[in-house]
Write a structure and sequence with these properties.
The protein has helices at residues 2-22, 37-44; strands at 26-34, 52-53, 66-67, 71-74, 79-83, 89-91, 97-98, 101-102, 107-115. It is an alpha+beta fold.
Amino acid sequence: MKRSQRVRLVILGTLGATAVAGCSPEYPLQQARYASLEDCRRDWGYDYRNCQNGDGSSGGGGRYVYYGPRYYWDRERGYPVAVDADGSRRAVPYANVANGTPRNAVGMKSAGIVRGGFGGSAHASSGG
């Protein structure tokens, strides 16, 4: 009988850890690559934080490459959330991004993982 009680405690402990871990989801960050600044702006708008000039050395003929913001797709709200270099987050509801995929990008790259936090605090935005 003592054995079955120990098993129950182990199972309850595992379920509790899973429930707590579920409160803080991780979101994969994406970043789109663009052939031109205008293509980037078509997807992300004219906020200077959204389109950055990248290293043009990897594109043939000295062509410039632009990068959109690092972002994750907020499924609950239906728009992307940009994550800036300092870790701050901002909603980008006006972005031309359908279900997480920018329309005018020439390529995508994984840009890491960001922890979601608890509840609504995971979706902070600033009115920059």
